[in-house]
Design brief:
heterodimer, A: 5-stranded antiparallel beta sheet, 4-stranded antiparallel beta sheet, B: alpha+beta
């Protein structure tokens, strides 16, 4: 058991390469992703950053203290998480209010301006997708069927939460539309009244002006 | 892939087995991201795909301008697999015939001032099984197990539909909120213009009849 574990960790450190989706950003650039999620939803993000090495003409895993600063903003534009992680990092947060959360990444490079390009492997999983079922199976000693049922329960719970959030958003949409309707009505009336008043004022003013000038 | 190597005790047989390539709970077969694409810019994403693994890319523009974006999918040898301009929504499935890095790019270069928010869903291969199947004999599934598999696949479809509805609703709602604000600004602007024109007309007219003593006289015989 002991040697197995040791081998496991050794293998893990060697095989721990990240593939998956990646994109390029400049060293001083910031990249943001938007997640619109209901409340009490867990979001897990995985990233791995590599730096372009001119000597090798390829992207190499960084060795000198390059990390990524991760910032998460909630729908009210309040920062709920702002931390710097290493070149290979995993961050988690749970939303406390429903709405648009923005996850921003930028490297902690101190260069003022730079031509260095970074390759960032990125993966963000939300809600039920973020759950680690192998861990749950090991912890609770569940059989296959039980684990599958647990997964189905998580999925259904996520669907329910999303539906509730959808209902709230639709109501907001409807309120906005009704408010726009009201605004258009009141502004039209107001503008018509202002037009009439302006017209009357013009005529009255000009009449008294011409009477004063003895033209009328 | 992020690879986790862990050891699981099978209590029934008290044997220690290797579970290799059990993913750390992340079904990395699918990535969905929503990002903002500023005007006159292009954003590319890359992924290493093996030959023969069926993949799907699906994207939708949520906010911005005419809700359109250019998309281009390129194979490792430079061949363009998919290229279309000014699309609001599309879905493309293909089976790669070569192993390598596939690149797909979203371009907003045709727009000068509207930045777009783009959602995409990139799926590679099938969903990884919930448990490691390597060390198990392939036994036929019981009725319960196959029923739960069906339920799981149906729930996946439900979640997919939900995502589509959510995106469409977001598009409509953001536009409505924008309209709400714009009605106010434009109305205030128009009111000011009406007042300015009203006052301006009067004072310009007055200026025709003043200052020049001679021109102010009525024409009479």
């Amino acid at each position: 058991m002991g040697t197995n574990n040791m081998l496991a960790f050794a293998l893990f450190s060697v095989i721990s390469v990240a593939s998956g989706l990646y994109f390029h950003i400049g060293e001083t650039e910031k990249k943001c992703f938007i997640e619109e999620i209901p409340d009490e939803t867990m979001v897990v993000g995985h990233y791995k950053v590599e730096m372009f090495d001119r000597n090798v003409n390829d992207y190499v895993p960084t060795v000198y203290g390059l990390g990524m600063h991760v910032e998460v903003t909630d729908p009210e534009d309040k920062t709920i998480m702002s931390r710097t992680y290493a070149a290979d990092g995993r961050f988690t947060f749970t939303s406390h209010s429903a709405g648009e959360h923005v996850i921003c990444l930028h490297s902690n490079s101190t260069a003022w301006f730079s031509s260095g390009q970074l390759r960032v492997h990125m993966d963000i999983q939300v809600g039920e997708h973020a759950v680690d079922y192998s861990q749950i199976q090991a912890k609770d000693k569940l059989s296959e069927l039980q684990l599958r049922i647990r997964q189905l329960l998580d999925q259904v719970e996520q669907i329910t939460k999303e539906q509730n959030y959808q209902r709230y958003r639709e109501e907001r949409f409807r309120q906005t539309s009704e408010s726009t309707n009201q605004r258009v009505l009141w502004w039209s009336i107001a503008q018509t009244v202002i037009l009439l008043i302006t017209g009357f004022w013009q005529m009255r003013h000009l009449k008294s002006f011409f009477e004063a000038k003895k033209l009328v | 892939m992020f690879v986790n190597v862990s050891v699981i005790d099978i209590t029934s047989t008290c044997r220690t087995q290797w579970n290799s390539f059990v993913l750390g709970g992340m079904p990395l077969f699918g990535t969905e991201l929503t990002f903002e694409l500023p005007d006159s810019e292009k954003q590319c994403f890359f992924e290493q795909i093996e030959k023969g693994v069926q993949s799907t890319i699906e994207f939708q523009v949520i906010t911005g301008g005419q809700y359109d974006v250019d998309m281009e999918l390129t194979a490792p040898n430079g061949q363009t697999l998919y290229k279309d301009v000014k699309k609001q929504y599309d879905s493309f499935t293909w089976t790669p015939d070569q192993t390598g890095v596939y690149k797909f790019c979203f371009s907003n270069e045709f727009s000068t001032f509207s930045h777009k928010v783009v959602y995409f869903d990139f799926q590679v291969g099938e969903e990884k099984p919930l448990f490691d199947q390597e060390n198990k004999q392939a036994t036929a599934m019981t009725m319960m197990e196959s029923a739960t598999e069906d339920i799981h696949s149906s729930l996946n479809d439900v979640i997919d539909s939900q995502t589509h509805f959510k995106l469409r609703e977001a598009t409509g709602r953001i536009f409505a909120e924008d309209l709400h604000a714009r009605v106010n600004y434009w109305s205030i602007g128009e009111t000011l213009i009406i007042l300015m024109i009203g006052l301006g007309q009067v004072f310009i007219l007055r200026s025709f009849f003043t200052d020049k003593k001679t021109s102010g006289m009525p024409i009479h015989s």
